[in-house]
Amino acid sequence: MPGEFLLTSLEFGRVVIESELKESNVCVYSGDTHSRNWNSDHSIPLSLDHAREYWSAEESATYCASAFRECRDVLDAEYPGGADQAEWELELWFG
User: Fold this and answer.
1) Is 79 exposed, middle or buried (0-12, 13-18, 19+ CB in 10 A)?
2) Whole-angstrom distance, CA of residue 75 vs CA of residue 84
3) Hey, which residues does 36 pair with through a beta bridge?
4) Mean pLDDT calculated for residue range 45-52
5) pLDDT at 38 over 70
6) The pTM is what?
7) Given a cut of 70, is residue 8 above it in pLDDT?
8) Which residue has the higher pLDDT, 88 or 21?
9) DSSP count for the chain of H helices, then E strands
10) Does the CA dihedral 50-53-58-64 come out positive or negative?
């Protein structure tokens, strides 16, 4: 439909890449997952869906390699497979 947008957010345990209309941010939620505990300075000026559609393979790979740099400790401690697994899953999502 005209004017309708898909805004995908990707969840890696408490670490979430939140997609908004004009940007995407990496956030870490508190243990109850109801409130943000931390918000990364590592944002991109596109929704994840627009990035997936318009970025080259190199741009996607660069983002995937750096997206979790500020929250690797949370992923390594709590996400099955740790930060490396989350990065691999993000790469798969980008295709």
Assistant:
1) buried
2) 9
3) 29
4) 93
5) no
6) 0.88
7) yes
8) 88
9) 4, 4
10) positive
Q: Which of 44, 40, 19, 20 is nearest to 28 (CA)?
A: 40
Torsion sign (Cα): 56, 62, 65, 68: negative
For the chain, the three-class secondary structure string (H helix, E strand, C coil) is CCCCCCCCCEEECCEEEEECCCCEEEEEECCCCCCEEEEEEEEECCCHHHHHHHCCHHHHHHHHHHCCCCCHHHHHHHCCCHHHHHHHHHHHHHC
Q: What pLDDT was estimated at residue 82?
A: 98
Distance CA 87, CA 70 (A): 13
Does 76 have pLDDT greater than 90? Answer: yes
**Residue linked to tokens 């995908």:** 8
Rounded (10°) CA dihedral 27, 14, 95, 18? -30
